[in-house]
Amino acid sequence: MVLKHRLCGGKQRARTESDKALREQQILDAAERLFLEHRFHGLTLADVARETGLTKAALYRYFRSKELLFIAVYRRAMSGWVSDVEAVGPDGFPNQFVDRILAHPVFCGLTAILHIALETGLREEEAREFKLFLLSQSRRLTAVFAAATGQEEAACFRYLMQCQQALIGCWHMSHPPEPARKAMQVEPLTVFQVEFSDTLGNHLSVLTEAFIRQ
After folding, report:
1. Is 105 exposed, middle or buried (0-12, 13-18, 19+ CB in 10 A)?
2. Which of 53, 113, 161, 202 could form a disulfide with 10 if both were Cys (CB 3.0 to 4.6 A apart)?
3. Are the C-beta atoms of 84 and 100 separated by less than 8 Å?
4. How far apart are CA 178 and CA 124, in angstroms?
């Protein structure tokens, strides 16, 4: 695969710090796509190693578990989304808020399986560190909401959690397993088909209106 040729010499061990940083980013690139294609339970570290041209032993030097690899991918995706929302700023809320979410489909897809990824496989200190990361990112977002609406932090945080819940529900309804997706392509089951962008936009519009009014 083309990706294998980009990995700093394939199975050759990365020696310099720049080579290690590049290899880690390329592992994250491959894992990001694989997590979305195969979902969480359908993917193994062996799959990621094969995709990147590494041995499992080499991959373990970067990530000791699938859960930690997922967290690294998710941190990158969420940080990009939060920075995007901050760049738009309070003046862009609420009109551009939904657009900023939909502009990050990787973040949306990973958020939908986040609770699955964190069910097992993490040590307590690892789970705490990741939750602290989520909290810090959430506070960056709630600061934008508060500046735009004058709402208190607690209300902004509740609104953010409601948005996340809507995103997760809309993603799963619009991305069913392949057998269900094919079944719903034939009448009368087409009534169950859901388009992610429109459905999430409708949900977030209702949530946002209620949030601003309170």
Report:
1. middle
2. 53
3. yes
4. 35
Question: How distant, in Å, are the alpha carbons of 15, 24, 75, 103, 183 from that of 131?
Answer: 32, 22, 11, 24, 38
| Nearest-angstrom CA–CA distance, 160 and 143 | 11
Per-residue pLDDT of the chain (214 residues; tens, 9 = 90+): 444 434 444 455 666 778 888 999 999 999 999 998 887 888 899 999 999 999 989 999 999 899 999 999 999 999 999 999 999 999 999 999 999 999 999 999 999 999 888 877 788 999 999 999 999 999 999 999 999 999 999 999 999 999 999 999 999 999 998 999 999 999 999 999 999 999 999 999 999 999 999 8
Selection from 61, 60, 108, 100 nearest residue 84 by Cα: 100
List Cα–Cα distances, 202 to 4, 98, 104, 112, 205, in angstroms: 41, 10, 17, 18, 5
pTM score over 0.70? yes
Tokens of 204: 């977030």
Residues 64 and 71: their CA atoms lie apart, in Å, by: 12
User: Which residue carries 């973040």 as its tokens?
Assistant: 107
